[in-house]
Amino acid sequence: MAIIEVEHLMKEFKIAKRETGFLGAMKGLVKREFHTKHAVKDISFTVDKGEMVGYIGPNGAGKSTTIKMLTGILVPSGGTVKVNGIVPYENRQANAKNIGVVFGQRTQLWWDLPTIESFELLKEIYQVSHSRYKENMDTFTEILGLDEFINTPVRQLSLGQRMRADIAASLLHDPPILFLDEPTIGLDVVAKERMRTFIKEINKERDITVILTTHDMEDIEQLCQRMVLIDHGQKVYDGEIAVVKNRFGKIRTLVVDLEQHSTPLTLEKAEVFKEETGRYWIRFNREDISASGVITQITQTHNIKDLTVEEPEIESIISRIYQEGFDGVEQPIPVKSGS
Amino acid sequence: MAFMRYIDLYFKLVAAGIRAQLQYRFAFFMRIVGMLTSYAGTAITMWVMLYQFQELGTWNFYEMLFLFAIAVLSWGFCIILFFHFRSLDTYILNGTFDRFLVRPINPFFHFMAMKFDVASFGQFIFSIFIFIWVSAELQIHWTIANVLFLFAAVIGGVLIQGGLLVIISAFAFWTTKSEQFYWVVMYPARNLTNYPLVIYPKMVQWFMAFVVPFGFVNYFPASVILGKETPYFSENIGYFSPLVGIVFFIIAYYIWMLGLSRYKSTGS
Question: ipTM of this model?
Answer without folding.
Answer: 0.85
